[in-house]
Design brief:
The chain is of the alpha/beta class. 43% of the residues lie in helices and 15% in strands. The structure holds pyridoxal-5'-phosphate. The site of pyridoxal-5'-phosphate has 16 residues, from helix 3, strand 7 and helix 7.
């Protein structure tokens, strides 16, 4: 099997549900819209990072780790899910944040704390400094006799989304859904790159629309290319289909920048909540669903072809975004 060489821990509830968006689809006049619920996992409130963590934690346990170190801002979903997975597996967890300590814990950082993780606050620094600090911490821990594992090997984590593409394809086949279009988020590009690699391995059964929520087209493309090639090297396989054939990047939904909300994405959150009872947050998933809606409206995703959006989770962040959704006075 494709992944059998890689130690893997069962953390996500797979396959995640593939659901028909009856009412949301009707509101955009598309009868065959689907959502893949990667937000729907029982551990730590779920999300895309649990698929990555299955492989990261597999490697950690194989190496005999007694502690994991992860980096991110306090609102990071990756930190929250690393803390949850560590709790489940009986490992200690240290989170390295590049901010000042928050005065009040809420959203993801509250949950990371509840899962028992220790947080270190470096103050406002860039991601490179944060990574250097984390590497230095790992060295200090080793010198103290601990066995730390640093979370974040990108290619290894991407395997989770290679698998997600295969999983979605199998679900669609089993339900006789002729799935032709998929919409997925692109921030640091690990989720999308894995999914694109899986799609290429399958021979391109569906086209993948990557909604950029962080970087310019050029930067995101180079990240996707780098990750795509790194996955190929890790697995020792080159798909016959190229990245160019499988993927289109869309820049129209980023708005003013990463984590900066747009009125259309806020509306997408309201619409999906009120037509389907499904929650989005404003950094990743609401811009992605807005992208799906607009690509349908513009005819880029045809109303004659089944399409699916990947819900990557992030729900706990919504409570930190409450100001965006207050009723008008
Ligand atoms: C909920 C959620 N969705 C999407 C993403 C984006 O994934 P990637 O950085 O792999 O593009 C993240 C990343 O942190 C996330 O937390």
């Amino acid at each position: 099997m494709l992944f059998s060489r890689f130690p893997r821990v069962h953390l996500a509830d797979l396959p995640t549900p593939l659901q028909h968006l009856h009412r949301f689809g009707a509101s955009v006049d598309h009868p065959q819209l689907y959502i893949k619920r990667d937000d729907f996992m029982s551990l730590g409130m779920g999300g895309n990072k649990l698929r990555h963590l299955e492989f990261w934690m597999g490697a950690a346990l194989e190496q005999g780790a007694d502690l994991v170190v992860a980096c991110g801002r306090p609102e990071s979903n990756q930190c929250r899910l690393t803390a949850a997975a560590a709790a489940k597996l009986g490992l200690d967890c240290i989170l390295v944040h590049n901010t000042e300590p928050p005065g009040f814990l809420q959203g993801n950082i509250l949950l990371s704390h509840l899962f028992g993780a220790q947080s270190i606050y470096l103050g406002e620094t860039d991601e490179e400094t944060r990574q250097q600090e984390a590497v230095a911490l790992v060295e200090r821990l080793k010198a103290e006799g601990r066995k730390p594992y640093l979370i974040g090997d990108v290619a290894l984590g991407c395997l989770g989304y290679v698998n997600a593409a295969i999983e979605l394809h199998q679900q669609a086949l089993a339900r006789d859904i002729d799935l032709r279009q998929v919409v997925i988020v692109g921030a640091m590009g690990a989720t999308a790159a894995g999914f694109l690699f899986g799609t290429a391995l399958l021979g391109h059964p569906f086209h993948v629309h990557v909604i950029s929520v962080e970087y310019s087209r050029e930067v995101l493309w180079s990240i996707l290319e780098r990750n795509f090639n790194a996955i190929g090297s890790l697995l020792g396989i080159r798909p016959n289909v190229t990245l160019e054939e499988v993927a289109t990047i869309h820049m129209d939904y980023l708005g003013p920048g990463y984590a900066l909300p747009t009125p259309e994405a806020i509306q997408a959150t309201r619409d999906l909540a009120q037509t389907e009872g499904i929650l989005l947050e404003s950094v990743y998933t609401s811009k992605t669903v807005w992208g799906l809606r607009d690509l349908v409206a513009r005819g880029i995703i045809s109303r004659q072809e089944a399409a699916c959006v990947i819900h990557t989770g992030g729900g706990p962040a919504l409570f930190g975004q409450a100001q965006l959704y207050q009723p008008k006075k």
